[in-house]
Amino acid sequence: MGYIRSAALRGFADEVTVHGGDPAAYARAVGLRPDALLADDVLVRDEAAAQLLELAAHALGRPDLGLRIARRQDITTLGSLAVAIQHSPTLGDALDCTSRYLFVHNGSLSVRLGGDPQGERGVAGLHYGPAGEGLVQGTDMGLAFAHGVITYLHGGPYGLLGVELPYRPAAEPAAYEAAYGAPVTFEAPGTAAVLRLPQALAGHRLAGVNATLRRLALAHLAAQTPLPGTGGGTSARVRAAVRESLGTGSVEIAAVARLLAVHHRTLQRRLEAEGTTFGALVDEVRRGEARRLLTGTDLPLAQVSAMVGFAEQSALSRAARRWWDAAPRAVRAGAAPDRVSWGTLEG
Question: Please, are residues 62 and 21 in contact by the beta-carbon 8 Å criterion?
């Protein structure tokens, strides 16, 4: 069982409501908390999310529901990954970044740029999977979302040559062709859905790239990647949950356990088996986020304190002394001169 950020369901509630459905009732029916539909950073079971889409599509008589929801989403759905993607030098770099760090958004999905399934010269394939018969609304939504992101990064149509789906269409074929503006092949061989792209598209340079913003975003994403050989599956999920909760919600173990859909004692045992504790992970995440904010932005110290989950600035000062044997101002003063202002980060 894997987990995804609830941001992947952004637009679901609005689309369902437009068609007279009750999104909260559908969420409860598949075991999801209804409030997950109103937030971006709740961790939800991927299987439950897929079942939610199928249930709603059937109940509403909207077999193109996944395609419709994708139209309501944009690149910001990807959270911190969106910053790294938008500030990649080329579209190929953006796709490579997506392939490497997509697990932060959806731990059970993979996206990679590979060969053309038809073997045509000068054509590449963006392989999205796994995909197959059964719960297809999620794939319909996800692949159409990927198409929309590429269109956005390219600044308009990018020359999509065709789409290959390894399953029968849930909706009328015309709905798929309207969504992509290209021919769509159904029941294609393989286990991935594929966007067929011009190979030269990978070299397309993106506009408005800020190398410093990309470096900060990549550092943030890399911090969520388990070290090779450490296992750390539960630890990695806890780090991600804590990082998203800092400054916005409780970082108590009971609250994080609810996000991960496990009992807090079970979570404690799993962390102990990986040689760590919840408190140690919270401290590790706080330390990393504090250093990133101190050395990478010019945010006021009071705001940095709040963003890493401290009630008062004095708590940040004590922690900084323990972590680095230095005051927060000294840590900031010793940083490289390419700090980015918060206004730049927001823009």
Answer: no
Give the relative orientation of helices 278-296 and 264-273 as an angle to the nearest 10 degrees: 80
Examine residue 130 and say whether the peptide bond preceding it is cis (omega within 30 degrees of 0): yes
Q: What is the DSSP letter of 102?
A: G
Q: What share of the chain is helix, strand, coil (3-state, %, to 5)?
A: 55, 10, 35
SS3 192: coil
- Tell me where in the chain the CATH 1.10.10.60 domain(s) lie: 223-346
Bridge-based pairing state of the strands 184-185 and 162-164: parallel
Superfamily of domain 223-346: Homeodomain-like (1.10.10.60)
- Distance, in Å, from the CA atom of 283 to the CA atom of 255, rounded to the nearest integer, reads 16
Q: Work out the burial of residue 232: count CB atoms within 10 Å of its CB; fewer than 13 is exposed, 13-18 middle, 19 or more buried.
A: middle
User: What pTM, to 2 d.p., does this model score?
Assistant: 0.69
* In the chain, alpha helices (H): 12-18, 23-29, 46-60, 65-71, 80-86, 91-101, 137-154, 173-180, 211-222, 233-245, 253-259, 264-273, 278-296, 301-307, 313-324, 328-333, 342-346
Is beta strand 193-198 parallel, antiparallel or unpaired with respect to 123-129?
antiparallel
CA distance to 114, 313, 339, per residue, from 289 (Å): 35, 15, 15
What is the CATH T-level fold of the domain 3-203, as seen in this structure? H-NOX domain (3.90.1520)
Interatomic CA distance for residues 281 and 237, integer angstroms? 11
Residue type (1 letter), 241: A
List the single range of 33-42, 94-103, 132-141, 241-250 with lowest mean pLDDT.
Answer: 241-250
CA distance 114 to 111: 10
pLDDT digits (tens, 9 = 90+) for 286-330: 998 898 888 877 788 998 898 888 989 999 999 999 999 999 999
Q: Which of 331, 324, 346 is nearest to 295 (CA)?
A: 331
pLDDT tens digits, residue range 103-120?
778 877 889 998 999 999
